[in-house]
Amino acid sequence: MLRGNMVTTTVGAVILDRSGEQPKVLLTQRNVEPFKGRWCLPGGHIERYETAAEAVLREVREETGLDFRGAFMDWFEEIYPDLDVHNVVLMYRGEAAGELAACEREVSDIGWFPLSQARTLPLAFCHQRVLEDLAL
Q1: What pTM was estimated for this model as a whole?
Q2: Residue 10's closest CA among 74, 72, 91?
Q3: How many alpha carbons lie under 13 Å from residue 43 in its C-beta half-sphere?
Q4: What are phi and psi of 22, to 5 degrees?
Q5: How many angstroms separate the CA atoms of 80 and 98, rounded?
Q6: Quick one: pLDDT at residue 5?
Q7: CA torsion 31→34→35→39, rounded to 10°?
């Protein structure tokens, strides 16, 4: 992670499962700082010479094992001076296919949550705002 007076660009994915009575969203529990132990949407930093669309596909695959199909949803800012974090987040929304396989290095747990429950969990970064803004 770049530090010290740097604004970084990251991506995130709102992955929805609409197969049941109520839509569910996929969350991962962070196994790294910052926000270790909190739940979050899959995502991460865009690598050099990588497009945002490529980055969100890679991050979802790395963290969840799933193949993501989505489109740009909105952008958010994450500003946490005490953590020396200032990110501009490009958030994507869609569905995914495949078998869940959490990357243990980054993710301690993974699961599908009804949106109403997901909004009550201790969430990392700006993900509470993202889920509050999510209109289904």
Answers
A1: 0.93
A2: 91
A3: 26
A4: -125, 145
A5: 34
A6: 66
A7: -60
Measured between alpha carbons, how far is 4 from 28 in angstroms, rounded to an integer? 27
Structure tokens, 57: 């596909």
Among residues 30, 35, 107, 31, the alpha carbon closest in space to that of 66 is found at: 107
Query: How many helices and strands in the chain, by DSSP H and E?
Result: 3, 7
Could you give the C-alpha distances from 18 to 25, 34, 96, 106, in angstroms and in order?
9, 31, 11, 26
Nearest one of 95, 87, 77 to 24, comparing CA atoms: 95
For residue 4, pLDDT over 70 is answered with: no
Q: What is the mean pLDDT of residues 43-58?
A: 97
Question: What is residue 63's predicted lDDT score, i.e. its pLDDT?
Answer: 97
Mean pLDDT of the chain: 94
Q: Is domain 8-133 given the CATH code 3.40.50.10070 in the classification?
A: no
Structural domain boundaries of the chain? 8-133
List CB contacts of 128: < 8 A, sequence separation 6 or more.
Answer: 119
Query: Residue 1: is its pLDDT beyond 50?
Result: no
Q: Per-residue pLDDT for 2 more than 50? A: no
